[in-house]
Design a protein that fits this description.
Blueprint lengths: L1 H19 L2 E6 L3 H19 L2 E6 L5 H10 L6 E4 L1 H5 L6 H5 L1 H6 L5 H4 L3 E2 L2 E2 L2 E2 L5 E6 H6 L8 H13 L3 E3 L5 H4 L2 H5 L18 H15 L9 H9 L3 E7 L2 H6 L8 E4 L4 E3 L2 E3 L2 E2 L4 E4 L6 H11 L2 H14 L21 H12 L1 E2 L9 H14 L3 H22 L1 H4 L4
Parallel strand pairs: 1-2, 8-9, 13-15
Antiparallel strand pairs: 3-14, 4-5, 6-14, 7-9, 7-10, 11-12
Helix pairs in contact: 2-16, 12-18, 18-19
């Protein structure tokens, strides 16, 4: 009888602790298999130490914005989830810097300076980076050897060898879809220009450096007739089938190439081409990836921040990457934390070197209001497809971008007026 009484009391105590333990809900842009690994890590390492229970759910790129908006509107947002400047200014996200002060400053050391640029706006910091994307030059080793060529280090080198590549019946691939964010920005940044002022409030599309970059980029399609394929799979297949000798793409392509047994030993990686400026090659490229933040509706803000501190730590990030890459065939996970990179074991050292250097050469776009890239994309396509004058197209895009910024400043005035 005493034994039964003891067991009942013990059960009630444990049940009471379980009910009173903080619990947070986390939505991450990861595959289901990746989340399973992270769940086990969180239970063994984080929950065991803090007592905080973590419910992690995968969410898809295709519906992340709509699902997150609906959750906020319905009062059912996760504690941690998708973050953006727009979400933050609309009041959906916690200002991590204002809420956690020096703890956030320490947390922000877990991603590169290039990523920090895109974490906030006007002194408000809404996001944290865990997974990051940078751009690489992939090349068909067998085909370049056949042509007696090496991967171009600068765009000028590429222009010199491109006629030989095309005369042999091959081509190269740059991103045609989402050009403003994927393949056009390097041409501006490497020349020392930008599409926006440093505060994100003024368009710089009317500057001469932008016009030069615009003409250089669009001439690749107008005169060299590069493929205009919007589907990533199509560009990848060009490379896979031996029609393309060079593929300028993100680090996510690495795992896909590794999975192709027919390409074993026939491809490799090189630095993204740059422009020669004062005797030095400048290789600035876009940096991307999903930001996560704490939603204002969270009732467990401290517990959520403790999870971010654990999750973004270099050891956790390296452990997650290694487990993903050793457990799931051809899967990759490239952490935003530069201190985690030397701890990665899933990438061969020679490949990891290029990824690390690419990360150092990368940055996000300047934080801004509104959806501005479409104006640049439209100008590029109109120039390439219809041959319209570049000055006129850029002047039009400049005006449209500036009008969009002004509209958004008015829309968000109640949030950002004190700092403009």
């Amino acid at each position: 009888m005493k034994r039964q009484y003891f067991l009942i009391v013990l059960f009630l105590i444990l049940a009471s602790k379980a009910l009173s333990a903080p619990k947070i809900k986390v939505w991450l842009l990861l595959y289901t298999e990746h989340v399973k690994i992270l769940k086990n890590m969180a239970e063994d390492q984080f929950t065991a130490k803090t007592g905080i229970i973590v419910d992690i759910e995968p969410i898809n790129w295709s519906d992340v914005v709509s699902k997150s908006l609906l959750a906020v509107a319905g009062g059912d947002s996760p504690d941690i989830g998708y973050a953006s400047i727009d979400f933050g200014l609309r009041g959906a996200l916690l200002d991590l810097k204002a809420e956690f002060g020096e703890r956030y400053d320490k947390l922000a050391q877990n991603w590169t300076a290039g990523a920090s640029l895109g974490s906030g706006y006007e002194g408000r910091y809404y996001g944290a980076w865990h997974l990051i994307n940078c751009f690489i030059q992939y090349y068909r080793l067998d085909l370049l050897q056949k042509l007696a060529l090496t991967p171009p280090q600068t765009w000028e080198e590429l222009y010199n060898v491109l006629p030989k590549i095309q005369a042999a019946g091959y081509t190269i691939n740059l991103a045609w879809e989402n050009m403003a964010t994927h393949s056009f920005l390097p041409f501006i940044w490497q020349r020392g220009g930008d599409i926006l002022s440093s505060n994100g409030l003024e368009s710089r599309l009317n500057e001469l450096v932008v016009e030069k970059a615009f003409n250089e980029y669009t001439d690749l399609y107008r005169f060299y007739k590069l493929p205009q394929d919007s589907e990533w799979k199509t560009s990848f297949n060009y490379f896979l089938n031996g029609e393309s000798v060079l593929l300028f793409d993100g680090d996510w392509t690495y795992g896909n190439l590794c999975s192709q047994q027919s390409l074993n030993g026939r491809w490799s990686m090189a630095k993204f081409p740059g422009h020669l400026v004062d005797g030095k090659i400048v290789r600035k490229t876009p940096l991307g990836g999903p930001m996560i933040g704490i939603y204002k509706g969270s009732k467990q803000k401290e517990a959520a921040f403790q999870f971010l501190e654990w999750f973004l730590d270099s050891k956790t990030q390296a452990d997650l990457s290694n487990q993903i890459m050793f457990t799931i065939d051809w899967a990759t996970y490239y952490p935003a934390n530069p201190k985690a990179i030397p701890l990665l074991k899933g990438y061969p050292q020679d490949k990891l070197k290029f990824l690390q250097e690419a990360l150092e050469d990368s940055r996000t776009n300047i934080p801004h209001l509104g959806s501005l890239n479409r104006y640049i994309d439209n100008a590029i396509k109109t120039r390439v497809l219809l041959g319209k004058d570049s000055q006129e197209l850029l002047a039009k895009a400049h005006k449209e971008m500036q009008n969009e910024i002004e509209r958004k400043r008015i829309e968000y005035r109640r949030y950002i007026q004190p700092r403009i």
